[in-house]
Amino acid sequence: MPFNTHLVMSVPTHPIELLRFNTCGSVDDGKSTLIGRLLYDSKSIMEDQLEALERSADITGGGQINLANLTDGLRAEREQGITIDVAYRYFATPRRKFIVADTPGHVQYTRNMVTGASTANLSIVLVDARQGVIEQSRRHTYIASLLRIPHLVIAINKMDLVGWSEARFNEIRETFESFLPRLDIKDVKFIPLSALNGDNVVDPSPHTPWYSGPTLLGHLESVHIASDWNLQGLRFPVQWVNRPNNPTDAQLHDFRGLSGQIASGIVRVGQRVMVLPSGLKSTIQKIWTLDGELDEAFCPQSVTLQLAHDLDISRGDMIVGLDSLPGMSNDLLAKVCWMNPRPLQKGRKYFLKHATQTVQAVVTSLESRINIQTIEPEFEPAELAMNDIGEIRIKTAKPIVFDGYGTNRLTGAFILIEQGTNATVAAGMLNPPMEAVKPEYNDFAI
Fold first, then answer.
1. Which 3 state secondary structure label does DSSP give 267?
2. Domain extents in the chain
3. Which of 40, 211, 304, 350 is the most buried (most CB within 10 A)?
4. SS3 label, residue 88
5. Superfamily assignment of 18-222 in CATH?
């Protein structure tokens, strides 16, 4: 193998059907119980886990296992009956594999919800049927929209505590539908259920004859996700310049590969590409994976590319196709979710991590802050407090190559890092660039 194999992930030619989803909602809406029910009813719990739960003091007076403890792993979570950290669980059915993130409901842990939802294909917003739509319901729905999560499920939980009332279900649904048109979410499903008792989670409930839709698991198994990945416009952030270590084959002394994960698009042998920010052009000579050479690869595969020309390329550069070019600028407009107790104010300096590079940046202005109750912007706020969502303008020390987050979730996302502490203080989504890189940029015959 002509490169450092530990740097390249093996990816099958045919992608495995994997759904990433998160659960969110307010405190005590039943998020952890719902995931526990999914794991329990889909028989995805190890025998020793089940035995430990049965032996623990977490068994209720009625003899029911506390399913929430399958995800609430911290002692403080079990003692308080809340979720604090993001818990990831894995399970599978004959139709699909799943990675689920159980995210906290408290307002103070909204940043954890953003973390858990950032890579999701689908988001489940739980609503307590007794409480209806509250501020956290709106906040989490808005964040799901902001993160461009393609599919949304509104799980109206604890329906057993409102007598399985169809009128109550419709009332909550109509409240959501009054503000959903202002959000960019195209696929929304409403499901009445009881996570504690398992109604409409894995098996249909006899208590909802008025509901003709799928169960939650049935929807998770069948929702169409094949088109969620962006296969338009090649974007390949270079993560590593791959040189062989002490090659025994003389022909490998000159091998120079570029390793990374394809952020969007398809790359083919013989394809003409541009390297940004230099603007130099070349041709794809070979595409390597751990399993050997490929004629083509696509998002989100991890590969090593070998170019026909020996160009000056390093970590942080981006290889792009010539058919659809990104923007490049050091003046950025973005929406951010502020995650730090110290408020964000104009003039503060941070590190901005985008794709595979990190640059120095300064916040030049606070454009607006979102009022979660009305989903409307409040212009020119003095600061953004923790868990606030707003739009800011940033100046970076050098231009970055990017797309709008709505076009590409990987090249349109960034985080802000506090200098000195290295704490992540914000997650950001870039607005579309004012103009794309010109095809003739630094063009010369190669």
1. strand
2. 18-222, 230-321, 327-430
3. 304
4. strand
5. P-loop containing nucleotide triphosphate hydrolases (3.40.50.300)
For 297-338, what is each residue's pLDDT tens digit? 999 899 999 999 989 999 999 999 998 899 999 999 999 999
What DSSP string describes 18-51? Answer: EEEEEEEESTTSSHHHHHHHHHHHTT-S-HHHHH
The residue count of the chain comes to 446
Q: Computed from CA positions of residues 291, 94, 197, 149, in that sequence, does the dihedral angle turn out positive or negative?
A: positive
Question: Distance (Å, rounded) from C-alpha 6 to C-alpha 9?
Answer: 7
Q: Which residues, other chains included, contact 275 with Cβ-Cβ below 8 Å and sequence gap of 6+?
A: 281, 282, 311, 313, 317, 318, 319, 320
Separation of alpha carbons 43 and 123, rounded Å: 22
Side-chain-side CA neighbours of 299 within 13 Å: the count stands at 21
CA dist., res. 423 & res. 48, Å (int): 37
**Where on the phi/psi map is residue 17: left (φ > 0), alpha (ψ -120 to 50), or beta?**
beta
How far, in Å, CA of 148 to CA of 429, rounded? 10
End-to-end CA distance of the chain: 28
How far is residue 32's CA from residue 388's CA, in Å, rounded to a whole number?
Answer: 25
The C-alpha atoms of residue 158 and residue 196 are separated, in whole angstroms, by 8
Tokens of 175: 């409240």
Question: C-alpha dihedral over 386, 389, 394, 396, to 10 degrees?
Answer: 70
pLDDT in tens, 51-88: 666 665 444 445 566 666 665 443 343 343 433 456 78
CATH class of 327-430: mainly beta
Domain at 230-321, CATH from 1.10.10.10, 2.40.30.10, 2.60.120.460, 2.40.160.20:
2.40.30.10
